[in-house]
Design brief:
With 297 residues, this protein is of the alpha+beta class. It has a domain of 112 residues. It has eight helices and five strands; from the N terminus they run ααβαββαβααβαα. Helix 3 packs antiparallel against helix 4 and helix 5 runs antiparallel to helix 6. The chain is flat and about 110 Å long. It comes from Chryseobacterium rhizoplanae. Keywords: Coiled coil, Membrane, Transmembrane, Transmembrane helix. This is DUF4349 domain-containing protein.
Length: 297
């Protein structure tokens, strides 16, 4: 009986060892398959980074040009030209001319920034400050020259500010780079003194950046929208009625001017009061001198 039990237990142990061996062989096969599947992916060429990142990494590895801003080819700035104009046009009717001006402005997407009207005995003057897209500036000038009235004067000027715009843009980009570096330094500041000094530098850079950005916005506005100063002038016909009005106003002005002259004269005399105080002494000494002279005779 004991022999039978030993034989059975021996058979069981042999079967278990075979099954474990088979499992190990299966695991080995799986590992080989997995390694074969991973090999091609690891051998594949990595995706290259963008050119500007690779350039920055190369410069950082060489230890040079870490803090230098190098504009990309796409950072080229187009020419910045500011156009301004000044025109004076004589018209027959101010209101009619103003309606014509408004129609021309609508066609050219322009608008009136400032309007000033003056009415005198001699003439009427309507002064307009007009802003117009730079591409419509020449068309606007031609429209005013042809269909409004007689052009008395015209002055057109162009100012190329490309160099100034480029210089401000480059300085602005560099200031932003330094600002980020100071902000990183602020995070790792060890003492309160260092923190205050870095915060002061950050504040100065932020102010300079605001000024530079404001200057760029101003230049862009002047470049995108040209400015035209337009004066509509109408000379009044001097009729008998206007002549009377003109004479009356001049007469009143003359009376007023005469009164002002009289007041100025009186005030001038009053300002000489110290000399008037000396007159009695002068008269007294003169009489005394005269009486003494008579006594000697």
């Amino acid at each position: 009986m004991k022999k039978i039990i030993f034989l059975l237990s021996g058979l069981i142990l042999i079967n278990c060892s075979k099954s474990n061996g088979e499992k190990q062989e299966v695991k080995a096969d799986l590992m080989e398959v997995i390694s074969e599947d991973k090999a091609p992916s690891s051998a594949a060429a990595p995706i290259p980074p963008p050119s500007y990142i690779s350039e920055k990494m190369a410069s950082d590895e060489n230890g040079t040009n870490k803090d230098v801003y190098t504009p990309k080819k796409t950072d080229t700035i187009s020419r910045k030209i500011i156009k301004n104009g000044d025109m004076k046009i004589q018209v027959g009717d101010i209101k009619k001319a103003q309606r014509q001006v408004n129609d021309i402005l609508k066609k050219n997407n322009a608008y009136i920034q400032k309007e000033d009207f003056q009415n005198t005995d001699l003439d009427d003057n309507l002064n307009l400050i007009i802003r117009v897209p730079h591409k419509n500036f020449d068309v606007l000038i031609s429209s005013f020259s042809d269909g409004i009235g007689s052009v008395l004067s015209k002055n057109i000027s162009s100012n190329d500010v490309t160099e100034e715009y480029t210089d401000v843009s480059i300085k602005l980009a560099n200031k932003k780079i330094y600002l980020e570096k100071y902000r990183d330094m602020l995070k790792s500041a060890a003492t309160t003194k260092d923190m205050l000094e870095i915060q002061e530098k950050i504040r100065e850079l932020e102010d300079e950046i605001d000024v530079a950005e404001g200057r760029l916005r101003f230049i862009d506005d002047r470049v995108n929208y040209s400015t035209l100063s337009l004066n509509l002038y109408k000379e009044k016909v001097r009729s008998s009625a206007t002549s009377k009005i003109g004479f009356g106003s001049r007469f009143v002005d003359s009376v007023t001017e005469g009164w002002n002259s009289f007041v100025s004269f009186m005030l001038g005399i009053v300002s000489l009061w110290p000399f008037f105080l000396l007159i009695p002494f002068i008269i007294f000494f003169w009489r005394k001198w005269k009486s003494g002279k008579k006594n000697k005779n």
